[in-house]
Design brief:
With 1018 residues, the chain is of the alpha+beta class. It contains 29 helices and 38 strands. The N and C termini lie far apart (85 Å). Bound molecules: zinc ion (ZN) (3 copies).
Length: 1018
C-alpha cells in the first residue's frame, strides 16, 4: 500500500472515470430485462410498463418483437446479428428515435458467421436493397378455417360461459373447475346440443358466410362449408377438450393417490397444479393449438413446460415462462439435455411432457441412405426393408421414434440455473425429408424433355394418398436417439454402450443402474434399467410439395480423385437451391417461404429430383402455382440458370448468386460452375441421350405395347434395381410376367439389390408365392447384378429379348424402378441390339450371379385362397392352423374395418374366433377414421371406444383400438390379421394372414378376394 499525496489524489480524481462517475450525483443504473414471446403475457406486460416508466432501460428482444408491441421511446437499437433481410433490418432499427428530440442510434454486430460476414463486406448493397411488399396468401385454407372456427367458438362461449363480465376467460370458465373422463360426456352433450340449437345453426351459418369475403374464384377452393365445416370445427375443438380432460384427470388422480397415501403436502401440490392448469387463459391455449388465428404463422408448435414451482402453496399465477416454438426446430431445441434461456434463467429440458399413449405412440422409420426418402410404420415389420422410393437396401436401419407433444423441465430445478457465459447447444435436427413416394405414372411431362414433375398437395385430394408429407428427425446428441423412461418420461441422449471387453468374447452389457429423477416430482425414479434402444424425436407435417425429376444423369467430377457421390450431392444441392431461389423470384416471395431439399438416385443412375416445398405447414399454394402458364417450367429453368451465372464471377458461390440467410449451412457445398454447365448441357440437348446404342423415343409406352413387341421372342430379360417396391407393387406387372412364363418364354430378372430369402412384406411374399413354381421349373432365372451403379444404370436397356443383332431393346430414361413397379415407365425408348450394346450388356452381365432355384421357397410355405365373388367363406378352413389354440394376441390392421358400415364384420369375426380357438387374451385393432355417405367423420376417439366395447362384449379379452385421423394412413398393403399363438410345447408362433381386400371382403361372399397365410416362429 502506498499513501497518495494530496495533489496526486486530486489529479486522479479528475481523470479516473470510475471515481468521477461514483461522485456524480445523478447515478444511472442499467436495468435490463428480456422481452420475448417466451414470457407469460402478464410478466411481459409488467416489463413493458416498467420500461415505459423508465425503471427498466434495456430490453433484450427476440425477432417476434419486430412488430406489434409498442415499446414506446427507444433511444438506441443494437442488432446482435445481421437481420436476415432488409425488411427485418428496417423493422428493428426503425424503432429507435421516433421522438423528434432523440438522435437515433443503431449498431449492428456482424458475427463470425458466413452470412453476417458476407453482408458486412457488401453492406452498402444490403442497406440499399428494397424490401419485398408484404402480402397475404388467400389460398391458405388452414388460415381461413381458423377464422371460421373463431366465429363459431365465440358464439359457443357466449352461450356456455355464464359470467359475461369475465374479461379473459380461462379454461375453468369453460370446462368448470375439473374436467374428468366422467364429466366430459356432459360437456360434449352440451356442445352437440348447441350445434343443433338455433344459436348454433346461426353461428355455423355466419362462419360459412365468411367465405363471401374471399374472391369468388377461391371460395370453393379455400372455404369449407356444410357438414364438412361442422365436422372440422367440432372435431378440432373436441381434440382440444380431450387433451384438457386428459391433463386435468391426471392431476386429479395424483391428488387422490397422494391423499390416500396420507401425503397431504403432495396432494396439495397436485391440486394446485390442476388449479393452475385450469387457470390458463382460454385464448392462449386455443391459439397455441392453432384453433384460432394467431399473429404467428400457422405452425405446429411444441412447448417446453417450465416447472418453476411458482404455484406451490400459493394461490396460482400463470407460469412466468411459456416456451413454445415451431415443432420442426422444437424437437431438437427443446429436447432433453437442451438448455433454453428465458426470463434471465437457464432451463434444461428433462423429459417428454405426459400425454396418454394414444397421442404419442412409438413408431418406426427408416431413412434411405441413397435417396433420403423416409418410410414409416407402426411396427418394424411395417417399415419395408428396402426403400419404397428407390429400392435401395444398403446401410438401411430401422429406428424408433415418437412425435413429441412437448417437453418438460425437471421439478428438481424449479428455479432454473444462473446464466453463465455459455449454454449447451444442441445438435440441430436432420433436414426435412419427403415421405411420399409417388409412382412413375404420377409424374407429368413438362415442356422440357429432360424434366418431369409431380405436385403433392398438403391436403391430398379425396381418395388419393398422394400428399406432401415431410418428416424431420432429431437423432440425439450421439446419433443414437434418446433413452426414455416409460415410467416417468425422463429422457437423455442415448450412448451406444462401449464394448470394452470384446477380447473375452462377452457382449457389452450395461450393468450400470440408470439413476434418474422423475421430472414431475424431482424425486428418484424407481425404474433403473437402461432401455435397450434409443428413441428419436420426429415431427411430421404436410405442405405443398413440388417434385422436379431430372431424367438426365448428373455430371461426374473432372478429376477422379473426387468422391463421385459427394460431388453429385454438391451439384444436387446447388441445383436445388438455384431452383428454390428462382421460384421465389418468379412468385415474388420472401426468402424462406419456399424450402428445398433433393433426392438422389445414385446406385441406379446418378439422377436427381429437386424437392421444393412451401415453408408454411399446411401449404401456401406456392408450389402448386409452378407450371401454370405465367410460371412455366422453361422460365423457371431460365431463372435458375441466371442464378448460377454469378455477376461477381465467383468460384463456387457468393452473396451475389446463391448464398442467402436460409441456406448458410450449405454455403461450403455449393458448386456453382459445374451446376451451371450441367443445366446448360441439358438445354443444348446433349446430356439426355448418352450411352451406346441407337434408340428412338417410344412416345406412349404401355404394358400392352410391351407384350405385343415381345410376342415373337422366346425370352425376355429385365434389368432393374430391385424386385419390387414393398409399398408400390403392381399386380398387372406380375400378371404380365406370369403370362410370358405360361407362353413358355424364358424370363430372366437381373436385380441390383440383394434379395431376401424370408421377406416380411406382403408384396414380396406374394411374389415369391407366385414365382416359386416357375423358378423351380427352371423357366424363370434371377440374377444378382453388381455393376449397376452410376451412369451405367441409365444407359443400359431396361428390357431386351436377346443379344443377337437386331433383337428388341427397350430403355427407360429414369432407371430406378423395380421390376414389378411398372415393367416399363415413361419416358421410354426403343432400339435394336448392335455391337456396341452387346458389348455393354455382356460386360454388365458378366458379373451377374444366379440365385439358387429355391430362392423363392418361402413363397411355397404360404397357403393361398383365391375367393371369387359368390364363393362360400370357409373360415374354419382358412383359419384351421389356429384351431383350438391359445391366442395371446390378435392384431387386425385394416384401414376401413372401423367404418360404421363395416363394424359388424369385426364383430362377426370375433364371434367366429371365440368359438374357433381356445382363448383370446388381447386384441389390437389398427384402422382409420372414415367419411360416411353424409360426409360425416366419426371422431377417432368415438370409433376406438365403440370398437373396444363391442369386441370386449364378445369375450376376446382386452381390446385396444388405434384409430388414425382421416387421411393420415398410408397406402400400404396393410390389410393383415396377425395371430400370436402359444402351442403346448411353449413355442410361440405368429400366423400372418394377408388380405387383398379388407376384412369385409373376406367375410362378404359377394366380393372377390385373396388370402395368404404364413406361419412364422416368433
Ligand atoms: Zn431410397
Ligand atoms: Zn423414470
Ligand atoms: Zn457468386
Amino acid at each position: 500500500m502506498v499513501k497518495l499525496e494530496d495533489a496526486e489524489r486530486e489529479k486522479l480524481r479528475s481523470t479516473n472515470h470510475y471515481l468521477a462517475s461514483y461522485e456524480e450525483l445523478n447515478h444511472l443504473t442499467l436495468r435490463a430485462r428480456e422481452h420475448t414471446a417466451a414470457l407469460s403475457t402478464e410478466l411481459r406486460e409488467d416489463i413493458e410498463r416498467e420500461f415505459s416508466e423508465r425503471r427498466l432501460n434495456l430490453l433484450s428482444c427476440t425477432t417476434t418483437m419486430e412488430m406489434g408491441v409498442d415499446l414506446g421511446d427507444l433511444e438506441a437499437v443494437v442488432n446482435l446479428n445481421v437481420p436476415p433481410g432488409i425488411a427485418n433490418y428496417q423493422q428493428r432499427t426503425g424503432r429507435a428515435g421516433r421522438r423528434a428530440q432523440a438522435a437515433p442510434f443503431c449498431v449492428t454486430v456482424a458475427r463470425n458467421t458466413s452470412y453476417d460476414q458476407a453482408v458486412f463486406r457488401t453492406l452498402k448493397d444490403y442497406l440499399m436493397s428494397t424490401p419485398t411488399t408484404p402480402f397475404i396468401n388467400l389460398q391458405n385454407a388452414e388460415l381461413f378455417i381458423r377464422h371460421q372456427i373463431s366465429v363459431v367458438l365465440s358464439h359457443f362461449f357466449k352461450s356456455v360461459i355464464v359470467d359475461q363480465n369475465i374479461n379473459a376467460p380461462s379454461l375453468k370458465h369453460l370446462f368448470g373447475e375439473v374436467l374428468t373422463q366422467e364429466s366430459k360426456g356432459a360437456f360434449f352433450d352440451r356442445l352437440y346440443a348447441w350445434t343443433e340449437s338455433e344459436k348454433g345453426i346461426l353461428a355455423f351459418a355466419e362462419a360459412e358466410r365468411l367465405a363471401e369475403t374471399l374472391p369468388a374464384e377461391l371460395r370453393t377452393v379455400v372455404a369449407t362449408s356444410g357438414p364438412a365445416l361442422k365436422n372440422a370445427i367440432v372435431g378440432r375443438f373436441r381434440e382440444f377438450a380431450e387433451d384438457v380432460c386428459e391433463r386435468c384427470s391426471a392431476y386429479v388422480a395424483r391428488t387422490k393417490e397422494s391423499a390416500e397415501a396420507s401425503d397431504y403436502g403432495k396432494a396439495k401440490f397436485w391440486q394446485a397444479q390442476r388449479e393452475q392448469y385450469m387457470e390458463q387463459f382460454l385464448v392462449t391455449e386455443l391459439s397455441r393449438r392453432g384453433l384460432i388465428p394467431t399473429y404467428s404463422f400457422p405452425v405446429h408448435s411444441l412447448t417446453l413446460e417450465v416447472q418453476d414451482g411458482n404455484s406451490f402453496g400459493k394461490y396460482q399465477k400463470q407460469a412466468d415462462v411459456a416456451l413454445s416454438r415451431d415443432a420442426s426446430s422444437g424437437i431438437s431445441e427443446y429436447a432433453p439435455g437442451a438448455e433454453v434461456v428465458a426470463n434471465g434463467r437457464i432451463w434444461e429440458s428433462s423429459g417428454l411432457a405426459k400425454y396418454p399413449k394414444a397421442f404419442m405412440p412409438e413408431r418406426w422409420y427408416a431413412a434411405c441412405q441413397e435417396c433420403f426418402h423416409v418410410d414409416v410404420g407402426d411396427t418394424p415389420q411395417d417399415v419395408p426393408s428396402a426403400c419404397s422410393n428407390c429400392g435401395t437396401d444398403t446401410g438401411r436401419r430401422k429406428r424408433k421414434y415418437v412425435e413429441p407433444k412437448g417437453f418438460v423441465t425437471s421439478a428438481a430445478n424449479k428455479k432454473g440455473r444462473d446464466p453463465g457465459s455459455s449454454r449447451r447447444r444442441v445438435r440441430p435436427a436432420d433436414e426435412a425429408r419427403l415421405i411420399a413416394a409417388p409412382r412413375a405414372e404420377e409424374f407429368l411431362e413438362t415442356e422440357l424433355p429432360y424434366l418431369q414433375t409431380a405436385l403433392l398437395p398438403a391436403r391430398g385430394a379425396e381418395g388419393s394418398e398422394l400428399r406432401g408429407s415431410l418428416f424431420v428427425a432429431n437423432r440425439g446428441t450421439f446419433g443414437e436417439g434418446y433413452y426414455r423412461c416409460h415410467k416417468c418420461n425422463f429422457c437423455e441422449a442415448f450412448k451406444k454402450p462401449t464394448s470394452k471387453s470384446p477380447s473375452k468374447g462377452k457382449a457389452a452389457v450395461t450393468t450400470k443402474k440408470w439413476l434418474h429423477q422423475d421430472p414431475a416430482t424431482g424425486l428418484k425414479c424407481p425404474e433403473d434399467t437402461y432401455p435397450k434402444m434409443g428413441l428419436d424425436f420426429a415431427h411430421m407435417f404436410n405442405t405443398d410439395v413440388r417434385l422436379l425429376r431430372f431424367l438426365a444423369p448428373l455430371p461426374e467430377p473432372q478429376d477422379d480423385v473426387n468422391d463421385v457421390r459427394r460431388y453429385q450431392e454438391r451439384v444436387a444441392r446447388t441445383v436445388a437451391e438455384a431452383f428454390r431461389l428462382a421460384a421465389s423470384d418468379m412468385l415474388h416471395l420472401h426468402p424462406g417461404e419456399l424450402r428445398c431439399t433433393y433426392r438422389l438416385y445414385c446406385t441406379a443412375g446418378s439422377t436427381v429430383e429437386v424437392v421444393l416445398y412451401d415453408g408454411i405447414p399446411g401449404g401456401a399454394g406456392y408450389c402448386a402455382r409452378l407450371g401454370q402458364p405465367q410460371f412455366s417450367f422453361p422460365e423457371l429453368l431460365q431463372l435458375a440458370r441466371n442464378r448460377l451465372e454469378c455477376p461477381a464471377g465467383c468460384d463456387s458461390a457468393c452473396r451475389s448468386c446463391l448464398c442467402d440467410y436460409g441456406n448458410q449451412r450449405h454455403w461450403d457445398n455449393f458448386l456453382r460452375k459445374d451446376s451451371s454447365e450441367w443445366l446448360s448441357s441439358l438445354v443444348s440437348g446433349k446430356a439426355i441421350r448418352t450411352g451406346p446404342g441407337k434408340y428412338v423415343p417410344w412416345p406412349k409406352p404401355s404394358l400392352a405395347g410391351l407384350a405385343d413387341r415381345f410376342g415373337g421372342y422366346p425370352s425376355v430379360s429385365v434389368i432393374a434395381s430391385s424386385l419390387s417396391s414393398p409399398t408400390d407393387f403392381s399386380e398387372t406387372d406380375l400378371n404380365q410376367v406370369l403370362t410370358w412364363l405360361q407362353e413358355n418364354k424364358l424370363v430372366k430378372l437381373y436385380v441390383a439389390n440383394q434379395l431376401e430369402r424370408q421377406p416380411k412384406e406382403y408384396a414380396l411374399l406374394m411374389l415369391y408365392r407366385h414365382l416359386y413354381p416357375w423358378m423351380a421349373a427352371g423357366k424363370l432365372k434371377v440374377f444378382q447384378l453388381d455393376g449397376l451403379t452410376g451412369k451405367a444404370a441409365s444407359e443400359v436397356p431396361r428390357l431386351f429379348s436377346s443379344l443377337e443383332n437386331g433383337a428388341l431393346l427397350v430403355r427407360q430414361v429414369f432407371p430406378v424402378q423395380a421390376v414389378f413397379q411398372g415393367l416399363v415407365n415413361a419416358p421410354a425408348e426403343l432400339g435394336a441390339v448392335d455391337d456396341e450394346v452387346r458389348a455393354q450388356v455382356t460386360e454388365l452381365l458378366s458379373d451377374a450371379t444366379e440365385y439358387p432355384a429355391d430362392l423363392f421357397a418361402e413363397g411355397s410355405n404360404m397357403d393361398m385362397w383365391e375367393l371369387e365373388s359368390g364363393d362360400k367363406r370357409d373360415l374354419q378352413d382358412i383359419f384351421k392352423a389356429i384351431a383350438g389354440q391359445h391366442v395371446k394376441k390378435l392384431v387386425i390392421k385394416d384401414p376401413y374395418c372401423g367404418a360404421s358400415n363395416n363394424r359388424h364384420r369385426l364383430q362377426e369375426y370375433a364371434k367366429f374366433l371365440v368359438k374357433h380357438v381356445q382363448v383370446v387374451d388381447a386384441v389390437q385393432i389398427y384402422c382409420s377414421e372414415t367419411r360416411d355417405r353424409n360426409d360425416v367423420v366419426e371422431h377417432r376417439y368415438d370409433v376406438a371406444r365403440k370398437l373396444e366395447v363391442m369386441l370386449e362384449a364378445e369375450g376376446v379379452g382386452r381390446v385396444e383400438a388405434h384409430v388414425k385421423e382421416i387421411g393420415r394412413s398410408r397406402s400400404t398393403h396393410d390389410r393383415e390379421i396377425a395371430i400370436e399363438t402359444a402351442d403346448s410345447t411353449g413355442c410361440d408362433f405368429v400366423h400372418r394372414y394377408f388380405l387383398s381386400g379388407g376384412l369385409d371382403y373376406l367375410l362378404d361372399s359377394r366380393s372377390a378376394t385373396k388370402v395368404f397365410h404364413l406361419r412364422v416362429a416368433k
